[in-house]
Specification:
- The complex is a heterodimer of chains A (103) and B (255).
- Chain A has 5 helices and 2 strands, in the order H-H-H-E-E-H-H.
- With 103 residues, chain A is mainly alpha-helical.
- Chain A has a domain of 30 residues.
- Chain A has a two-stranded antiparallel ribbon with strand order 1-2.
- In chain A, strand 1 and strand 2 form a beta hairpin.
- Chain A is elongated.
- Chain B is mainly α.
- Chain B has a domain of 158 residues.
- Chain B is built from 12 helices and no strands.
- Classes of the chains: A mainly alpha (103), B mainly alpha (255).
Chain lengths: 103, 255
Amino acid sequence: MNLWMWLLLACLLGYAWKLLGYLVPASLLRNPRMSRIAGTMTIGLLASLTIVNAVASGQALAFDARMGALAAAGIALWLRAPFLVVVLAGAGAAAGLRLLGWS
Amino acid sequence: MKLLQSPAVRVGLSISIATGLYGISFGALGVTSGLDFWQTMALSLLLFSGGSQFAFIGVVAGGGSGVAAMGAATLLGMRNGIYGMQLNALLQPRGWRKFAAAHVTIDESTATSTGQTDPDEQKRGFWTAGIGIFVLWNVFTAVGALAGSALGDPKQWGLDGAAVAAFLGLLWPRLKGREPVAIAVVCALATVLAVPFVPGGVPILIAAVVAAAIGWFSHGRSDEGLEPDVDPYAGHHHPHSHPHPGVPRSGDDAK
């Protein structure tokens, strides 16, 4: 139930951001610095989420089959594969490496 | 039906299919991260912003708390406010349409709309992409969530690897030029350094603070990082395909 509460609050705040842009006069919001922070934060958060999901295991760092997934996804993106193919490449690499015994 | 002859509608439909399809990966990862079917669906129906949704389940999957998951999702949603401001000036929706438009304001609908020059086309592009992605994204989230629940051990299928790949896929289109790459590397390093010392989910919020500080103190492009995961105009030779005309660019070093 607790998770539901945070989840619904996240939904509410997500919608609040979107609506803010429509309701607040543009003259107040049109600030290059705020646009820039929105952008740099998007990059920073996605980079952080990528690495956390690749190497964090609770509070420990682990180098396991997920590193193979990261490499495979990188190669797929380099080859301009569509998003779904990139995700499948990541899953396939992790599953394949586990089959080979690298947990 | 003249509607299908509109270039914006056609771009909107193709982006809807491309983006909607990867709702499958969100649905599957949602239920294997520890959320149940309806929690996963609630994120797609109510939060409806790919990056924020993946962030929420990414934090939960890593053992982070609900509040950290909410924090990461909310910080990633800030850019939608910037899009809302641009679209409000461009489309000038009235009454209830304002509230509906806000809900489908995401990377892809914004890019589809702002890639057009004619005001009518901008409107058609926004609503086609916005509604199209909303419908397909939710349908495919449900498909993925049902499939994910039937899979059994998610690790055996490499679903933790799929999550890593999904985040890299969301990050990749934003890494145009040297500066965004530097921001990504610094934030990834800050995250790795923080992991052993703070509870799960918090390293991600630390990276957000680092990224915000970089944005505050440096002077790069003001639309850096504001790109769609799937570029609606990739491969189209459109004379006015600059995704964000509302934001001035300085020192454009794209590609």
